[in-house]
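I hope you will forgive my troubling you with a question about protein structure. The record follows directly beneath this note:
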Amino acid sequence: MSLQVADADRVRTLTLDRPEALNAFDEALYDALADALLAAATDDTVAVVLLTGAGRAFCAGTDLHEMHRIATDPTFPRGRHGFPGLVDALDAFPKPLVVAVNGIGLGIGCTVLGFADLALMAADARLKCPFTSLGVAPEAASSYLLPLLVGRQNAAWLLLSSEWVSADEALGMGLVWRVCPPETLLEEAHRHAALLASRPLSSLVAVKRTVTEPRRAGVAAAREREGAAFAELMGGPANLEALAAFAQGRAPDFTALPPGW
């Protein structure tokens, strides 16, 4: 199983468990996490979901080996939910979502924070939105949610630079709520999740709905814009150079791209 599920104190902990791939999402893991969120949403024994990762990474984004196959093989089998279905499940999740970033977080491993109600981060963890280094566009409504969360210029740096952000930088810009020593991160995250879970479920759901409902139209519009841009760029010269460089273990060279790319 690439996703571990554990319940305690009305908190369901979902642990991404592909440590050999730094918990990168393949189609199977997208499906597994989407299914787990959908199940938790309708389970009255679950008041809060806590999301974290196994091993030294939180989530290394989309599995680039699989992305390369998808970009070059139109017959590659896709998941039942895939990436869009996971974002649907995150956007619609009606209960508090607590994220514990235990290690590196790239791509969706960073942009998922736009859907988190509380985010805690290990002091030695790092985050990156690698879209421009992959020759693609933002995803998971991050072009809308990140400016709301951290301000326009911080969001611009995250989305345009493809540079790492430290835990202290993430805390300073408001991308995460708390930074913890690595050895106490999960304990602290569960403690806060359990405190929330001790409140009435009906009230938790009502509070989250009143907070998130005003942004739904903006999220939907951003996803549509991002999807169109991603479809245009994926498989293009910049993206193929980035994926080939990754497969060959070298840095991408964008200097020889055709004009406009």
Remarks:
- The chain has a mean pLDDT of 95.
- Strands lie at 3-8, 11-16, 48-53, 57-59, 97-101, 104-106, 118-122, 126-128, 165-166, 178-180.
- The chain is about 45% helix and 15% strand.
